[in-house]
Design a protein that fits this description.
single chain, alpha+beta, six-stranded mixed beta sheet, five-stranded antiparallel beta sheet, 14 helices, 16% strand
Length: 365
């Protein structure tokens, strides 16, 4: 069966060989038609010696231009792929000068075709893996046996504990840079060794991994969350067995929605954030505006450190490099402006929730 090489691939081959050799290159189909050339005027024309070289399966050299129909001086080399002649590569010029590029041209062509072949294999694998992932996320179904067979090939059985990783890209992210971001996400996903990852329209990249693989890739996921903190949120779901992985997906989505910018959000370690992640941006904005209205950046900074130090005046003042009395004054100011006293439990809870909502809102922009 004749292997078909696309015009785009042929164009890449002639450009690459020309960049190295500095000579005009023709990529000729076995029937003699030039399908790509560095001389655009020759594309689509007939190349007699190219046709003959393909038919005879041997290199043919032409000493003088126009000796044959549509042919210039040069070297013409049949290119075999999987035992069949799929094209002829023509290098224009004095044969004694361009002959040295013949082997190089064949190697370049082979490398490019191999790259295309591997790309097709990878696309096929990813397509199949994507189908399996989507089926698993929908819950038990008629395709369960098919999914189980695929998982067994990946070393996963019903006793393996799995969890879901969900990475969500902000809708505000520049689509022109999406390919670079996607490749970086997939690169990190591949470090876990699991083939079960895919894209879910419109904004999610998901991965299913066993617990051991997840632990190994956790640092890379954390670095990814930090590197892409302005537009990416990563959530990790609960540990489940096949085929209950859809439960892990649901919790991973909740975790991603509540993730703090730059931090990997693991459902099992989250509490209040999960509740806040279910609120609409409008609701959070109203709550933050009501509780924190009138407070300036320094008020908020001191308040956050006070809560971070478990409401210890001494510890917070040391962290802020200020005197305790200065912090006391700032907390009094917060009470007077907001009506919420940071020193009382219920008011402190309102202020802390408002600060967390404010942080989540900042991550949405």
């Amino acid at each position: 069966m004749q292997t078909v090489i696309s015009a785009a691939t042929a164009e890449q081959i002639v450009r690459t060989v020309r960049d190295i050799s500095g000579r005009d290159i023709n990529f000729i189909s076995p029937d003699g038609t030039i399908i790509a050339s560095t001389d655009k005027s020759r594309v689509g024309t007939y190349h007699e010696i190219g046709h003959r070289a393909a038919a005879e399966g041997r290199n043919l050299e032409v000493e003088e231009s126009d000796s044959f129909r549509g042919t210039k001086a040069g070297v013409n080399l049949p290119f075999l792929w999987e035992g069949e002649t799929v094209a002829v590569i023509g290098i224009t010029g004095n044969p004694d000068e361009v002959r040295k590029y013949a082997q190089l041209a064949q190697r370049i062509t082979r490398l490019i075709l191999k790259e295309r072949e591997l790309d097709l294999i990878d696309r096929s694998r990813r397509s199949r893996a994507g189908y399996i992932v989507r089926q698993l996320l929908e819950g038990p179904s008629a395709t369960e046996n098919f999914a189980e067979d695929y998982l067994k090939q990946a070393g996963i059985d019903r006793q393996t504990t799995l969890l879901m990783v969900a990475a969500r890209i902000s809708a505000r992210y520049n689509p022109a840079n999406l390919t670079l971001a996607e490749e970086e996400i997939y690169r990190v996903f591949r470090t876990g060794g699991s083939p079960l990852y895919t894209f879910l329209y419109p904004d999610q990249y998901v991965l299913i991994a066993d617990e051991k693989s997840y632990r190994e890739m956790r640092p890379a996921l954390q670095n990814l969350a930090l590197k892409m903190k302005d537009f990416l949120r990563i959530g990790v779901g609960t540990a489940e067995h096949f085929p209950e992985i859809y439960r892990s997906y649901r919790s991973a989505i909740l975790a991603a929605a509540a993730a703090t910018p730059g931090r990997l959000a693991e459902f099992g370690r989250m509490h209040t954030e999960l509740l806040l992640g279910t609120l609409s941006p409008e609701t959070m904005e109203l709550f933050v505006g009501k509780v924190l209205a009138g407070l300036n950046d320094k008020d908020l900074k001191y308040l956050e450190m006070y809560f971070r130090c478990n409401c210890s005046l001494k510890a917070a003042a040391e962290k802020l490099y200020i005197h305790k009395n200065t912090l006391q004054y700032r907390l009094d100011r917060v009470r007077d402006i907001s009506g919420c006293d940071p020193r009382t439990f219920t008011d402190a809870a309102d202020l802390m929730l408002a600060l967390r909502c404010r942080s989540l809102m900042a991550g949405m922009h």
